[in-house]
Amino acid sequence: MKKILVTGGAGFIGSHLVKRLVEEGNEVIVLDILLRGNKIERDVFKSIEFVKGDVKNRDLVNKLVKGCDQVYHFAAVLGVDVVADNPVETMDTEVIGMQNITESALSHDVEKVIYASTSGIYGHSAMQQSVTETIQVDPRTSYAIAKRYNEIYLAAQNEEKGLNSISLRFFNVYGPSQDSRMVIPRFFEQALADDDITVFGNGKQTRDFTYIDDTIKACLMLADKVSGSEIFNIANENEMTIDQLAQEIKKVTNSKSKIEYVQAPKKRYDYEVERRFGSSDKLFNAIGYKPNTDLNTGLNVILKNLKQNA
Ligand code: UDP
Q: Residues of the chain whose pLDDT is less than 70?
């Protein structure tokens, strides 16, 4: 059993992580500002300590980190549209939040910081091939730039002061309880209402959708096994077009929706990436596991969950 702080623990990935950590018998503290509500299940919520607050609050972070064995730092401003509208807050949350986490982790001898980075830092690097951790990155958004900055900062903190850390480059994680800032819940909403499914552009842009349970499993195994300061892709290694995704969601929901090809909102233009798909080889070499849930299975779990909560 460990004592673990999860920042951003009320969000989509965070809440699934918190559930697993509690199931495994850990003592969990969640720090979350609740910008998007609380996604932690009621039963799980009863077994944790919840603190509403901001990772930019240095004293608060320091108080909560004290006595913890590990810190999962998952709090972030995210969503393409939200980030485009709030670049300064996005970067402040990343940079100040990370300073607070590393400073207190070092002063309280935390064994490891596990950080939610992003595959967004590859930008247009994935045009020809699936990306590995060693290729030249190409961050363009305030979000991706700050995430890359933090990866480098963590590496420096390891070199200079011995802080252990893992940066996780997530590839379009999806699953139950995600909100409609992201494409999969958005398409579900449209499909279930028999509204048009709005594919941006020609729908030929690709992503590598990675199921939440696989993502969490990989995080927990890495946190146990890896030391030093390392970066890992968490990718499903299955490149698919947004057009295919729309067809698949239409099929899974048995929807009468039409698939409409519409121009993306203007603020997305600068951020659109034509291809993004990752290699999880490094992950597999480290833990003997990599994400393997196929999209159809994942989408059916989401559908079941939506029906249960309807
Ligand atoms: N997308 C779309 N229709 C929507 C929302 C998103 O076609 O209503 C596309 C978007 O253009 C992008 C992909 O879905 O190519 C994934 O978008 P999301 O915002 O989920 O994440 P991103 O990978 O862009 O960070």
A: none
- In tens, the pLDDT along 211-237 reads 999 999 999 999 999 999 999 999 999
Positive or negative, the CA dihedral 87, 273, 165, 52 is positive
Distance CA(68)–CA(108), nearest Å, equals 8
Cα–Cα dist 280/211, whole Å: 14
Q: Does domain 3-173+209-234 have CATH number 3.40.50.2000?
A: no
Residue 205 CB neighbours (<10 A): 17
User: Is 295 near ligand 1, meaning CB less than 6 Å away?
Assistant: no
For ligand 1, atom 17, which residue shows the shortest CA distance?
A: 183
Contacts of residue 38, defined as CB under 8 A and 6 or more positions apart, other chains included, come to 10, 15, 32, 45
Fold match, 3-173+209-234 / 178-207+238-276+294-308: no
Distance 186 CA to ligand 1 centre (A): 9
Task: Convert the pLDDT of each residue in 40-63 to its tens digit.
Answer: 999 999 999 999 999 999 999 999
Owner of token pair 């929706």? 257
Question: Is the distance from the beta carbon of residue 172 to the nearest atom of ligand 1 less than 6 Å?
Answer: yes
CA 207 / ligand 1 centre spacing (Å): 9
Whether the CB-CB separation of 28 and 50 falls below 8 Å is answered with no
CATH assignment of 178-207+238-276+294-308?
3.90.25.10
Catalytic residue among 122, 143, 153, 174: 143
Per-domain boundaries in the chain: 3-173+209-234, 178-207+238-276+294-308
E strand or H helix that includes residue 296: helix 295-309
CA distance 304 to 310: 10
First-last CA distance in the chain: 36
Global model pTM greater than 0.90: yes
> Active site includes 153?
no
CA pair distance 188, 55, nearest whole angstrom: 32
